[in-house]
Amino acid sequence: MTEGKCPSCGAPVAFTAGSAQILVCDSCRTVIARKGPALEARGKIAAIVDTDSPLQLGIQGRHAGKSFRVIGHLQKDYGHGPWDEWFLELEDGGTAWLSESEGEWHLMTLSESELKIDWAHLRPGSKVFVDGKPLVVEEVGTAKTVAAEGQLPSDLNPTLEDRYADATGASGSFATLDFGLRTGEPEIFFGTVIAFEKLGISPDQLRPKAHKAQLLQARCTQCNGPLDLHAPDRSKRVACPYCGALLDVSRGKLAFLQALEGPKYPPKIPLGRKGTLRGTDWLCIAFLVRSCRVEGVDYRWEEYLLFERSRGFSWLVESDGHWTHLLPIAAGDVQTRAGAVVFRGRRLRAFQAVRAFTEYVLGECYWAVEQGENVAVIEYVDPPWSLTREDSDREISYSAGTYVDPKEIAAAFHLEKMAHPTGIAPSQPNPAQAKLGRDLRLTFIYTAALLVLFLLVQFSASQQRVLDDFAQIPVVGLSGSPEVTHVSQPFQIQRSGNLQATLTGGPFDNDWLGLDCALFNEETGEVTSFYSELSYYHGVDSDGRWSEGSTSQTLYLSRVPAGRYTLQVTPYFAGLGRFRYSVALRSGVPRALWLFVALAAIFIWPVLTKLRANGFEKARWRESNFSGALQVPASEASHD
Amino acid sequence: MKYWGALILLGYAVIAFTGYEPFSSHERSKVPPDARRGPGGVLLWHSGIHGGK
């Protein structure tokens, strides 16, 4: 411990942490540096602005088996409001940083890795490797250290602008590349996103959120209209619903920034409306109208910012009556492929790339929103999933979510009128595709059932040969006369069922033979009549030899009852009756034909479903402007 | 699909177990009691089907 007096005001000061080289005097805000046993004044720094952070100096916690103590506090600002960084001393003498950004906490330690990169060449979306892990740069910028308190590891100069880049990796890994005033060789602070509850800080140590809580019921600085702010501790901008004034809320009080043109129609979900969507009680806190221009046509959509204290922010995007619910995700969780991205093992194809303009804003926003701001937006889809990438010069952000049925939105937010969706949304689930899986399962079940039934029929069918008869037509007989008619011996059909009749005749030489058959039931007098014509024609023409006809035919008679029968066959022919013919009858013959017909009928259903699914997809992708390489329109192409 | 498949299954079962032949061209009728028989037991009555080229 190094104790002494502030070189500026004489107040007692003490370096309690061995890692601290700088201390801010509580009394006069002088930055004091430790030089051996001596203390040097390094100028003054502003007092901390109240950001409603729950942390304060002296708080103790425990993480990963090590206890820690908060000994220093920085506030940095890149021009749109400060954020907090907390310096921690660990029980083993090590140090760490805890930072808060848009409701997320990042716990980082100084990495010994070295990166040969140039800050000037870093862009949002650039890839870097820290400790062998791939990270994606989400934000590149400069910021000043505007306020500080407690003990800190390195010198402070509020007049200098430090260069930095934030990067995220898979599974919540996070890094800040601190270039300081340099353009290369950054100090790398590497760690993970951490839930505040896992920091092991007892609630009695937390600072009450007093200051910004006053903003919950603030008044617009321009029109004095009442502003019901729902997340003043997380918001940076508020757009007054009465006068359209855009107000800065990042510094603990409202400050006028810009007069905005208000939306031409009210939001479908009123600001302040609560709704339970998929198990989370969201609060609608902002409404934006955004647009893009594609091939000279302007397309508008609406975005609703939802807030829930433990889950943070999410978005409901409405376009043509279709709704998508999106949650922010880390860029490091997204792997970019050619024309696609992979997120949590799911491959999403690029659907469209546009430049999105913010036309109107109402309510509270967690970023420094501006009317007219524009970003490049790429939407990737794997229905019902949608993943959106937004690129500005400074920052890249991703959000991912799923399509939501408009009825679900209406029920969640108690909306009475909901426009019927038109067209097909990029992430709208394909109703036929959803049915296809079920249809294929049913097809498999029914096919198996049919095969079982077929086997059952095969084994149970009588397949009884009831008649084998033969006749020779007298040469002198006349066609169709009683002299040539043949009557079989009586025969018995044991079980009712179909009857297979096979008729064979000959000899044929460019000739035909018609067999008019009558099956008499001797017991009931019922007669079943059928006719078969046998023939064989042949010859030679300009194409060579030809032949046609058949000397044998098989017919099936429907449901012939059991009983005693005779078969009477009357032949018809041209010329002399020199033919002979045979008739074979079998009862109860199972037919594979009906199995195939049934199988075809079963399979036609999933085939039609697949065709419908393909048609839906074709209609969906007709609206895509992705053609192998995504070209986001340049910002110069903004519309009026 | 559920009902369509069940209908097909039912239709196949009916055809398979009753011997019903949907596209058979045979005709059914009753022989009148006074129909005469000729030599060889030939019934001198015709149901209506006539062949011929």
Summarize this structure briefly.
Chain A has 640 residues and is mainly beta. Helix content of chain A is 11%, strand content 49%.
Write structural notes for this entry:
The complex is a heterodimer of chains A (640) and B (53). Chain A has 640 residues and is mainly beta. In chain A, strand 36 and strand 37 form a beta hairpin. In chain A, the strands form 6 sheets. Chain A has an 8-stranded antiparallel beta barrel. Chain A has 3 helices and 41 strands. The C terminus of chain A is likely disordered. Helices cover 11% and strands 49% of the residues of chain A. With 53 residues, chain B is mainly alpha-helical. Chain B is rod-shaped. The chains are: A mainly beta (640), B mainly alpha (53). Strand 37 of chain A pairs antiparallel with strand 1 of chain B, so a sheet runs across the interface.
Poorly predicted runs of chain A are 636-640
Q: Quick one: how many beta strands of chain A? A: 41
Helicity of chain B, as a percent range: 25-40%
Oligomer status: heterodimer
Approximate helicity band of chain A = 10-25%
Overall mean pLDDT of chain B: 79
How far is the first residue's CA from the last residue's CA of chain A? 63 Å
> What is the C-alpha radius of gyration of chain B, as a whole number of Å?
19 Å
Strand order within the widest beta sheet of chain A: 7-8-9-10-15-14-13-12
- Which of globular, elongated, flat, extended, rod-shaped describes the shape of chain A? elongated
The coarse silhouette of chain B is: rod-shaped
Work out the strand percent of chain A.
over 45%
First-residue to last-residue Cα separation of chain B: 47 Å
Averaging pLDDT over every residue of chain A, what do you get?
88
Order of helices and strands of chain B: HE
